[in-house]
Amino acid sequence: MAHQKYASCVEACNACADACDHCSTACLQEPDIKMMARCIALDIDCAAICRLAAGCMARDSEFAKQVCQLCATVCEACGDECAKHQNPHCQECAQACRRCAEECRRMSAGG
Amino acid sequence: MAHQKYASCVEACNACADACDHCSTACLQEPDIKMMARCIALDIDCAAICRLAAGCMARDSEFAKQVCQLCATVCEACGDECAKHQNPHCQECAQACRRCAEECRRMSAGG
Amino acid sequence: MAHQKYASCVEACNACADACDHCSTACLQEPDIKMMARCIALDIDCAAICRLAAGCMARDSEFAKQVCQLCATVCEACGDECAKHQNPHCQECAQACRRCAEECRRMSAGG
Amino acid sequence: MAHQKYASCVEACNACADACDHCSTACLQEPDIKMMARCIALDIDCAAICRLAAGCMARDSEFAKQVCQLCATVCEACGDECAKHQNPHCQECAQACRRCAEECRRMSAGG
């Protein structure tokens, strides 16, 4: 498929969106939710922009690189916040965010 | 991860959304676009509901089953339309839609 | 515009999505977030399906009625949950959800 | 409501998303679709980023300004393309895009 050119970045965006969506729900069940408030807020943002980025790449959009560049910024912030928390869902989300940030930076830098 | 319980359905939804997004763009480059008009319209709908369904499952939403049930209906219609066209992107999209419809029906029927 | 036929329902969906998105953030700043956990989860679902429904109506999608029918169900659940909480953002969100549920039911029932 | 601070920009994003969604469907029914291919592709992108931007502002996201900045760029491109076509849906969409680009630029420049 033509969108294969972005295949690994699309896959990283989908995986990151799923991890963020899962993390937000799991955070809401933690005993100390207050501590997780920024994590939840960033999870919501990050899932939304990752799904947008996956769609833009799959459509080979004129703006795919610019969307991925912003996606990398959001993923990085979300990954940094998640990494502060020891819950497995946060640690897994941090990993997905960092991989996605890296893929998006590479993609937006040149293809 | 807790959302692993829906893992194969989430994966099918992501793959179907990507295939639909790719198909809509590829259809717009076909010599006879007019013939592809309904395919493009269904691709847009199908990509949107597949991404919603993936998110609902990843968040373990109360409405995940109902969203997947509707997603199955949309995927089936999109798959039937795509199957009429011989372009590789349509044939690949038809396959992704059918697999997603099946996963979503199974998921909404019981988990 | 042709999508004027659904104008009041599109408007209600956009307003409800915005109210839900606002409510989820405001809930995260409440002193007792734990009590707001289901409200936040439903806000996320409701915002997402309202934005899908607005898009489907604006595109005059074949599935607009079915999406609005499901949207009404989600709005009703979200409105019922929000109505339990006395915070102004929850009360305003409950109102937006109920208006949207009503518009979506009317739209899906006949046009 | 707290998200009132972005009220006019949120409203412009919602209106632009609806106009783009409507324009993409209407373009697919034009006698010469081929001529509308880029318009359709940009409509899809623009609707998606406008709905993301509306959500980010309503959630008072940390990234609302950056999302609006990118949204302005996409709206401008979509508005320029739509403005080339004399169909009423394209002309109306061009207007919605330009108003949204202006609101998003103002919002991202300072609040």
TrEMBL record, chains A, B, C, D:
Gene3D superfamilies: 1.20.1270.360. It comes from the Bacteria. InterPro entries: Csp_YhjQ (IPR005560), YHJQ-like (IPR044543). This is Four-helix bundle copper-binding protein. The lineage of its organism: Bacteria, Pseudomonadati, Pseudomonadota, Betaproteobacteria, Rhodocyclales.
